[in-house]
Design brief:
Elements: H1 2-10, H2 15-29, E1 34-41, E2 46-54, E3 57-64, E4 79-81, E5 103-111, E6 114-123, H3 131-175, H4 180-194, E7 199-205, E8 212-220, E9 229-231, H5 234-242, E10 247-250, H6 260-265, E11 269-278, E12 281-291, H7 297-328, H8 339-354, E13 359-366, H9 369-376, H10 378-395, E14 401-406, E15 409-415, H11 418-435, H12 437-441, E16 446-452, H13 461-488
Antiparallel strand pairs: 1-2, 1-6, 2-3, 4-5, 5-6, 7-8, 7-12, 8-9, 10-11, 11-12, 13-15, 13-16, 14-15
Helix pairs in contact: 1-3, 2-3, 3-4, 3-7, 4-7, 9-10, 10-11
């Protein structure tokens, strides 16, 4: 019988099948009313019941071990209980409560000196088991321990293979994203998928305060609000930011001086956090949260670190791409949108104007700029351009855009302004130009041309630009006529 059991169990690689087969082989050798199999997890130092059987039917479970936790350093001993009422109510009986067992026989699962768990059989008869049953169960336990270890190793290898494939898949997905927000969302989703946790959040550092972090993305049943800020305690900041080490903490012990929302949402939770290192410095924290004092184990922390490393590379690439994209659309001298960015915006606004939404543009020209540039030098000329760009940017509104059109010309695109709105805007720019210390120092004045997009007479961006340009040159011509008239007096 033992040889047959050894062959059968030795050919199985699925833990679930092994557990069921252990029960069936035990039931064939020992007359039992009920049975359970408990296994010890060294990572969590916890013992759980994984299979119970009654009336010849075994079923998978995940229940806490019903007795005081055994000491793994002092292995279980095989035990025979001949007479005594044994509580099996914790087994959640199917089909009604059977009569309480009166005797039991149990044996530890030991392999190479390590306790893997315990198997126990119950009988509703006094003296339901004898010494021969105890010896038989011990032999079966030796065979079962080897089978369980083999199955666990195979399952672990298979899990690691799947995790490696998933990490590779996530890495490819991350490197394909060029938007920082997309990278942040994807990494939080990946952690939620790969780790059994109750919440995931990615915190990014404040550029001015390295220990101040805000939630950029969050998910799970414990999802923190986006934008929530937290000043890391000194010890966490030292471990993660200074030493680049992961940390595992009881939330209650580290948020006493943090935001109330953090303490409320994560009450009774534990968390593991790993740093996101970009360009040689920590710029974020990837955090996984679990209800209760659950430790994720070294392997889960390693996965979190691997994901954080991938996120760091992808986020760095995405930020670089965003920076280069912004540079391609930004005038390097004034920091305003350049002509290319203006063209993109105008195309969108003119399309909306054709559908009836009012739109106007204003062109600003710095009078006699070439004279100032030649007289005072290019550095002074740059100073003038930057000062006027700052005036435009300060007076701009969110729905509008101000841009450097080229040379000493600037353009403002006004959405739904109305005639009075355009007049108010350009008059305000003229006032602010006169009051600006840099522009006033050089005596800078401006010429302004305005035009509304008329869907009846205009069809393109160039049409409205030409109309505004013509209005500006009319304004210049009127100014020259006024100056000539004053000089003749």
């Amino acid at each position: 019988m033992l040889l047959a059991a050894s062959r059968r169990l030795g050919g199985m690689l699925s833990p679930g099948e092994v557990y069921q087969a252990i029960y069936e082989e035990t039931a064939a050798a020992i007359p039992a009313q009920s049975f359970f199999l408990a296994l010890h997890d060294p990572a969590s130092d916890d013992t759980r019941v994984v299979l119970v059987a009654e009336r010849g039917v075994g079923r998978r479970v995940d229940l806490p071990y019903p007795e005081p936790e055994p000491d793994p350093a002092a292995p279980f001993e095989a035990q025979l209980v001949s007479d005594g009422v044994i509580d099996t109510s914790w087994m959640s009986h199917d089909g009604g409560e059977p009569s309480p067992p009166r005797s039991s026989v149990s044996a530890p699962l030991i392999l190479r000196g390590h306790v893997l768990g315990l198997i126990r059989a119950h009988s509703d008869q006094v003296d339901g088991f004898g010494e021969e049953h105890l010896r038989m169960l011990e032999e079966l336990a030796h065979i079962a321990a080897v089978a369980i270890s083999n199955a666990q190793q195979f399952a672990d290898l298979d899990r690691r293979r799947r995790e490696a494939e998933k990490l590779e898949e996530i890495g490819r997905a991350l490197t394909s994203k060029l938007d920082p927000d997309q990278v942040v969302r994807l990494i939080v989703s990946a952690v939620s998928e790969m780790l059994t946790v109750d919440g995931v959040s990615l915190w990014l550092s404040d550029t001015e305060h390295t220990a101040l972090y805000r939630v950029a993305e969050s998910s799970g049943t414990i999802a923190l609000p986006i934008g929530l800020q937290w000043q890391l305690p000194d010890d966490l900041n030292r471990q993660m930011v200074d030493q680049w080490k992961p940390v595992h903490v009881d939330i209650a012990s580290v948020v006493h001086n943090g935001p109330e929302r953090l303490a409320t949402d994560l009450a009774g939770s534990s968390a593991v956090g790993v740093p996101l290192v970009l360009g040689g410095q920590v710029e974020g924290v990837l955090m996984a949260v679990s209800q209760g004092p659950r430790h994720p184990g070294a392997e889960k922390i390693a996965i979190l670190q691997r994901l954080a490393s991938q996120a760091s590379v992808a986020l760095g690439n995405a930020r670089l791409h965003a920076s280069l994209h912004a540079l391609s659309l930004t005038d390097p001298l004034t920091g305003l949108p350049n002509r290319r960015r203006l063209q993109i915006h105008l195309d969108h606004e003119v399309a909306a104007a054709r559908r009836g939404r009012p739109m106007a543009i204003a062109i600003f020209d710095l009078d006699k700029f070439k004279h100032y540039n030649d007289t005072f030098g290019h550095i002074a000329g740059d100073e003038i351009l930057k000062a006027f760009g700052a005036v435009l940017e300060k007076e701009n509104r969110a729905m509008n855009i101000v841009a450097r059109y080229g040379g000493d010309e600037f353009v403002a695109v006004l959405s739904e302004p109305g005639l009075e709105g355009v007049k108010y805007f350009v008059d305000h720019i003229r006032e602010q130009t006169a009051q600006n210390s840099t522009l006033a120092k050089f005596g800078i004045s401006i010429s302004i041309g305005c035009a509304h997009f008329d869907p009846n007479t205009m069809s393109s961006v160039n049409d409205v630009l030409r109309a505004a340009d013509a209005d500006m040159y009319d304004a210049k011509a009127r100014r020259r006529e006024d100056e000539r008239g004053r000089n003749q007096l």
